[in-house]
Amino acid sequence: MSQGLADIAFTPAVKARQEEEGVSGLYADSAYFVPGKPVLGDAEREFIEARDGFYLSTVSETGWPYSQFKGGPQGFLKVLDRHTLGYAEFRGNRQYISSGNLTVNDRAFLFLMDYANRRRMKVWAKVRELPLTGNEDLAARLIPEGYRALPERLVVLDVETYDWNCPSHIPQKVSRQAAEAQISRLLLHIRQLEEENAELKSFLAPGE
């Protein structure tokens, strides 16, 4: 369980709602209330850097939330240290809604999904956008080699807290690459069985 989550997520309104639903006691003595920033351990690093995308939510100066999907090659979201994430921002539709929101409110929320294994991780962070120029060492760490996209800036996320969610209601899905790999293995196995079957038929054929 992550540390200090209640300080961020369990606002007075949330606590009041928990009380109304009779579930406030479920969290009263839990690790949700352990103070201090959490540490990104080996399990978190492995999970985060295995992703090829995540959902990023920000809030505008008018109070409206905005969520978008950030995608890239597997591992493009990096764990820079035990409290920090980072990734290279590549050119997309050029609306710059998330980027604009972050200029007035640096708080963001990341939702990382592993549909195949029905796991999810939530991350609350404060975000800094940095130019490529003057940050060459960081750019070398964050820009995936061989990825055919135009990097525009670097994004550094100071993790305030995180939480692992239960698997309830997560549909189990696999990626196209994983499905194709499994299908290829099955087709190979079928061909091998067909060849063995043909050999047996030839061996058992009458008059031979």
TrEMBL record:
SUPFAM superfamilies per UniProt: FMN-binding split barrel (SSF50475)
Top-rank taxon, per record: Bacteria
Protein name, per record: Uncharacterized protein
